[in-house]
Amino acid sequence: MPMKKGKKKKHGSPASKPAPPPEPQPEPPKEPDFDPKSVAIEFSADQIEEFKEAFTLFDRTPTGEMKITYAQCGDVMRALGQNPTNSDVLKVLGKPRPEDMNIKMLDFETFLPMLQHISRAKDQGNFEDFVEGLRVFDKEGNGTIMGAELRHVLATLGERMTEDEVDRLMAGQEDANGCINYTSFVKHILSG
Amino acid sequence: MCKNNLKSFFSFLFKISFTLYNSAIRAAVLIQRWYRQYVARTEMRRRYTWHIFQSIEYSGEQAQIKLYNFLGYLMDNFTPSSTERNLISHIFRENDVCWDSEWERYFCYKNIEVPEVYSGPHLTFPLTVEQAVGLLEAFRNKKQLHSRYVLELLLETWKVLRMMPNINRISTCQSKEVTICGDLHGQLEDLLLIFYKNGMPSLDKPYLFNGDFVDRGKDSIEILLILFSFMLVYPCDVFLNRGNHEDHIINLRYGFTKEVLTKYKIHGKRILKLLQKIFSWLPLATIIDQKVLVLHGGISENTDLSILAKVNRHNYVSALRPPKRRNHSPAGMSIDIDLDNELWNTSRILQRRASFTYPEPLGPKDCFHNRSLQDFSNRIKANTHNELENSRKKEDILAAALSRSQQDVLSLSTDSVSSDNVKEDWRQILDLLWSDPMNQDGCIPNEVRGGGCYWGPDVTEDFLNRHNMQLIIRSHECKQEGYEFCHNRKVLTLFSASNYYDVGSNRGAYVKLGPDLVPYVVQYQASSMTRELTARQSVGRTERSALKVLREQLFAHKSDLLCAFKKFDTENKGLVSLNDWASAVESVMHLNLPWRMLCSQLVTCRSTDSMISYYDWFNELAIKGPNTDHIDQSLLETLYRHRSTLETIFRIVDTDNSGFISMEDFRQTWKLLSVYLKMEITDEDICNLAVTIDSNHDGTIDIDEFMEAFRLTDKKSRLERGRSMFMGTASDLKLEEDPNV
């Protein structure tokens, strides 16, 4: 992507205003609300057994009722290797109110179609996507970005992270000058 | 500097094109998504690691209780003169004839000389605070207190404890905050850390220690000595509650007995005996400002503080068994008589046989005590050879048993005053020391541990209302953050042994409580390893440790696993699918772990179509032993699986705590074991085992050598030995032998 530093914005908005906020994620197919019944389960029986294990691991009900809270739904999906955004998760949950997240429960049968739907998401992001995105901030074109800037990005854009989360993510990544080699950084985070 | 950067950053953002901005957002979202996935996966690993440790730990506790119940069961059913019974009866004989003066003679320390060369602290009584602090410093510097002073200190402690009520009452009304600590489990480093962060006990700084001071860690005796000495110096400001590990039966398995016997070779036995008394005299609970109840385990729906306030707590030397029948002689002397003499004389009960025949299990069906017994009743085989004779004998016994009411039988082991009362008292104490909270309403037996119950929020609510209190503080369970609230913040679990399962596994915590009675939690983590671990490293290390322990457990069940696999592998190809592997493993191990998730960590040999070759897998797991070719493999496996039990039984049989048992006792022990462990073991097998050890043919077996020889002690297994492989080694201790390495 060519560097367009210093060039005026393409849109005709006044210089003092920032660019209009774009979609934080690739456009999903326009659908009204998520309907679990409409999802055909394609997972194998073996896979489903494994999902049950993860589900049980996060189940905090007394004698294993096999239920999790709405708030845990995203975590369980991620623990199973999916990569939804928070907004994706809220969508499959039927856009619950914030106060319901820790109260409303989800059983495995309800969870499964949600997981299936999430697993079909095409845009999982790969190494190149990460690197390309970070290259935007590589002002000198030398393969490094300022750690401070990356922190700002993660804390202010997209689905913001807290300062704590950013600190943990970036632990040990910045060199003495506060710079990060972003290719290595991406390799590091993808190695899990 | 930072502000300028922020400014220039945002102005940079404003200047770039929409496409680039879009791209930056995409990158941000990707990273954020990835990060959240990473956090979730780490959390998952942490959880199953925790499960592994906890399942294995609790099944160990359960095994210990089962063993104890089994032995108790044998006790109740053998003739007094049988050899097997004599081997084990002494652990149930709580008090020999007990004049106070007899005890004083037994525990007398005055004849013990302290040699010139001794470089540890010298104590004079009454103890001063300088001496208590000096003791602390000495232990920090790896010194050991001389047995003379140990006995003296313990005697003084015993005197003080006998004057305390069952339930201590503290007040914070003088603007004194009380510091409450949970389980320490012999981890001296944590106690030192607490004193460092919070200050030592003093008139202005009262402390309450909530039980489980001993077992698993390597400095249990030092912790006791420190706590007792501060209690002697500040009897109104240092309080101790009894925990379920302040119990000599539990100590046999979990390392404290061994620690004392190793550190105090000559006087260890006396020290242990005195500690038995001290443990039984430890208060059961503490109430702060009449509003906050502090106790070790928890409560049940039957917990009644007014009953607990009145029990004779010192009768319960071990919480696992109700006290023996007491007879009072005309001289006012209290004698605990040998239970079976009484029975034999009155011949009230079942006709006994010298062999392992049995009546139906006794007592209410759902009593945990009897649940374990039911497990055994089908394991016990008759020793006599005639089947017909056996069944006839069984019928006799059954008839005899059925003709008595259950009440009669159970009352044998109770106080002469009122059998019902003592049983009730016993249950109250058991619940107090062993129970765990659960999220669900109600109250059910705690089958995982084998003692006490699980109690729910409704029980908490009811209890607090009845007693007009607002908070229960308890310990007994390890928590990752060192503490955890539950039941609507009305129950607080507090655990003070950091790195309990392994370095980095959990933090410890203590609580400060002022007159406002709002608990203020302070966390810490001992770091004898100098490196700071990142969260990822910490999880990784603990995970590896847990997996190692799990692999050993799996290997120890090889025969059963092989059977289970073969059932799935109908074509006998040596292969099973992942699903079948997981089902088979759970059916054998009963640990309720997420096997499919763990599979990739436990099994590296997968064939191309993702089937598992189980023979290869066993080779992977195999634990190499010394030259044991002449010993049957399945016997070895059984030994390995039950090594804790084996060692416990050895130590029980070793009545004078010498570390040696005679060949004859060794043989008898195996007979006991063969029944308990469902092993077929011939005399030849026993001889082979003995020969491997008793190389000098002097007719005695060294217990430690035996365990070592069969690789039955794993120096690195923390759960069994109370010592983490990642913690400091014995080289810094001036002991001849480190008990726990």
TrEMBL record, chain A:
Biased composition (Basic residues) is annotated at 1-12
Name the InterPro entries for this protein: CALM/Myosin/TropC-like, EF-hand-dom_pair, EF_hand_dom
Residue stretches of biased makeup (Pro residues): 17-27
Query: May I have one GO cellular component term?
Result: myosin II complex
Coiled-coil stretches noted in the UniProt entry, renumbered to this chain:
none
User: What are the entry keywords?
Assistant: Motor protein, Muscle protein, Myosin
Q: What Gene3D superfamilies does the entry give?
A: EF-hand (1.10.238.10)
The protein's GO terms of the molecular function aspect are: calcium ion binding
Q: Which SUPFAM superfamilies match?
A: EF-hand
User: What name does UniProt use for this protein?
Assistant: EF-hand domain-containing protein
What organism is listed for this UniProt entry?
A: Cyprinodon variegatus (Sheepshead minnow)
TrEMBL record, chain B:
Question: Which co-factor is required?
Answer: Mn(2+)
**Which Enzyme Commission numbers does its entry carry?**
3.1.3.16
BP terms from Gene Ontology: detection of stimulus involved in sensory perception; negative regulation of MAPK cascade
Q: Does the keyword Metal-binding apply?
A: yes
- GO molecular function list: calcium ion binding; Hsp90 protein binding; iron ion binding; manganese ion binding; protein serine/threonine phosphatase activity
Task: Provide the coiled-coil residue spans.
Answer: none
Q: Which reaction does it catalyse?
A: O-phospho-L-seryl-[protein] + H2O = L-seryl-[protein] + phosphate; O-phospho-L-threonyl-[protein] + H2O = L-threonyl-[protein] + phosphate
Superkingdom of this entry's organism? Eukaryota
Does the record carry Calcium as a key word? yes
Task: Show where the EF-hand domain sits.
Answer: 556-591, 641-676, 681-716
Gene3D superfamilies from the UniProt entry: 3.60.21.10, EF-hand
List the keywords (alphabetical). Calcium, Hydrolase, Manganese, Metal-binding, Repeat
Protein family: Belongs to the PPP phosphatase family.
Could you tell me what this protein is called? Serine/threonine-protein phosphatase with EF-hands
